Amino acid sequence: MKDYLSETAxxxxxxxxxxxxxxxxxxxVDSTNDLLKEMVEQGGKxxxxxxxxxxxxxxxxxxxxxxRRWEAPPASSLLLSMLFRPNxxxxxxxxxxxxxxxxxxxxxxxxxxxxxxxxxxxxxMVRQDGVWxxxxxxLQEGSFGADGRxxxxxxxxxxxxxxxxxxxxxxxxxxxxxxxxxxxxxxRLPLLGTFxxxxxxxxxxVGDGRSPQPLWQNKLITLGQSVRVTYHQTSETxxxxxEATDDTGHLLVRDEVGRLHTITAADVTLREK
Length: 273
What we know:
five-stranded antiparallel sheet; 24% helix
């Protein structure tokens, strides 16, 4: 029997102060990001406030970065979107993706014995049989005001929890699940609680003026590696060494002739040695 989440169970299990205290859990939806975006844009007195969390047991049209599909069998994973109203300058917008990916990596580490890393810009990875596999991805969307500040942002995340190995989707980066990587099921509700609590803590730290970029960069498995960069709009490709990230989270890659590139949006894959 499938172990479905409920709004009551989620709300009462959380140790957060504001994140997830208001939530909805749906059996299925096209996309949690799309539905939450509709709720925000409709506005009015019933508009969701910062900290609202929308979860689903199944997404019919789940998607990740670069419009790639995100697929998971019903009641197998954690599929959710979170609403924030940070009023941050545009230069700090990527900090949300940073802190959410950090929180996911720390939550997985707290509930498993897996080796966890982050792949620029938004993938949570686990090392399985000596190879890095993708276990989670993040998609951030938002709206900027006339003053250039981030009025609201929706951060969606999918964490492959209890997907059997033979039901994992195909991907450019090899996918896995916590079940496939550990060989045993991982209870989803405690994992969700740890994740949301850490998101809240990191978000509050940013509000106190502390950037998540140093901690996030420290977990990047991309740095120091030979990578291939592909710009999808132009199909331009080059290879180089990923050296660091800047304060805004852009990746700095030095190509084979020594020129340093600042990568803001592209597909960056680790090259085989």
